[in-house]
């Protein structure tokens, strides 16, 4: 038998039975009618060890790359400051369409934004002023619905959101949603299902989900949220129905559910996040659901479960230096735990 063939046989055998010994392998080959000396099996066994190590290392690297890709796709390891620097610099270089599209995509996927964007908005620098003017011009000059017009409304909403002008932000998002529905309607003639509709490189079902997530986020942060819980939760529910795998939207809904006294809903989203993290690694979006689940469980008398959620929430607060979308929730969870520890 050729040496390479023997090595491969041993690799396959050892993958199936990691505890396989040289002696056992030799006896197995003899029982199969393969006339092999013990020394030949020993030599091939040594080579199979190296082959196994290489195979395991390659598999580990592939798994790591796959996980990295999944986390980036889910927005878990994104450098928002770098992306906003690119978007704003594009606009300063008069790449208006690229800049608007980049800014809209960032605002839809990460409404929490970044220090870079917050600083640019607060300082009213030339790039954000130009971005706003371009968005306004596109809306004024566009008679028909389009993805570009939708993105212009999103940019205006994002700029209002950064300035805590929630009513204006919500109005702009609702206009973006109306515009997108018109785009969807204009592309429905060929009986193409929504999840397969792509216009200008944008999947319309995903974009619809992101717009509902953005409007739900604005409603959650609104100073008038006490009267808007139903609308807020409806929008977040619609977003998750369209795109169930968005961790950021799950976080927002968990917090909104808690604030709306929908405690079972908060715990359900926290459980979803726990499963999501088990597969993809922990992330900053776990903070809100875990803290919401903490107080929800304690409110329902589930003390031990509440303690487990609180431990997970604290770990992520420390790791990601964030208290989630509702800082008061961190204080409530801490105070509730202090009471139940007495």
Explained architecture:
This protein is mainly α. It has 16 helices and 2 strands. A two-stranded antiparallel sheet has the order 1-2. Helix 10 (204-221) packs antiparallel against helix 11. The radius of gyration is 27 Å and the shape is extended.
Keywords summarizing the entry:
single chain; 342 residues; mainly alpha; two-stranded antiparallel ribbon; 16 helices; 2 strands; 75% helix
Summarize the structure.
This protein is 75% helix and 1% strand.
Low-confidence stretches: none
Fraction of helical residues: over 70%
SSE succession: HHHHHHHHHEEHHHHHHH
Number of strands: 2
Q: What structural class should be given to the helix and strand makeup? A: mainly alpha
Count of individual helical segments = 16
Strand content: under 5%
Give the overall silhouette: extended
Summarize the SSE layout with pairings.
Elements: H1 3-16, H2 22-31, H3 38-73, H4 80-92, H5 96-109, H6 115-122, H7 126-141, H8 147-162, H9 166-186, E1 198-199, E2 202-203, H10 204-221, H11 229-242, H12 247-259, H13 263-280, H14 287-299, H15 303-320, H16 327-340
Antiparallel strand pairs: 1-2
Helix pairs in contact: 1-3, 2-3, 4-5, 4-7, 5-8, 7-8, 8-9, 9-10, 10-11, 10-12, 11-12, 12-13, 12-14, 13-14, 14-15, 14-16, 15-16
